[in-house]
Design brief:
The chain is mainly α and 126 residues long. 46% of the residues lie in helices and 5% in strands. The chain has one domain (11-113). It has a two-stranded antiparallel sheet.
Length: 126
């Protein structure tokens, strides 16, 4: 009587796992690099939109907003800006107006994230 064995041998399973490991070592760094690039691009876009909203607020009302929530309350933004690098809307660095004797509020916005972009620029300098 002849027995038919079905299934994979240990060596076949190890070969398949080795192939998967090689593919992951190639794909994983590219994936994480892509995530970093998309976070940087999103941060730059968020800063541009928020700065534009601050400028429009100043142009319409003659004063700077007192905080970021005021931009949302007055419908210059739909919601508080979100920093994709720090994963928070609470880590922004608020830059006051240059002439603090006559103006108060939020004149500019910078990221509170530590570290640098892929270009070597600090996140807070964008």
């Amino acid at each position: 009587m002849k027995l038919l064995r079905r299934g994979f041998t240990l060596i076949e399973l190890l070969v398949v796992m080795a192939i998967i490991a090689v593919l992951l070592t190639i794909a994983a760094p590219r994936y994480f690099e892509h995530l970093d690039r998309s976070r940087e691009a999103t941060l730059k876009q968020t800063l541009a939109i928020t700065r534009d909203a601050i400028d429009k607020f100043r142009g319409d009302r003659g004063v700077y907003p007192q905080n970021l929530q005021e931009l949302v309350d007055k419908q210059y933004l739909r919601k508080l800006p979100f920093d994709p690098v720090t994963d928070s809307s609470e880590t922004w660095i608020i830059v006051p107006p240059r002439d603090t004797a006559t103006d108060t509020g939020v004149a500019d916005l910078k990221s509170g994230a530590e570290g640098q972009t892929r270009d070597g620029v600090a996140f807070g300098e964008l």
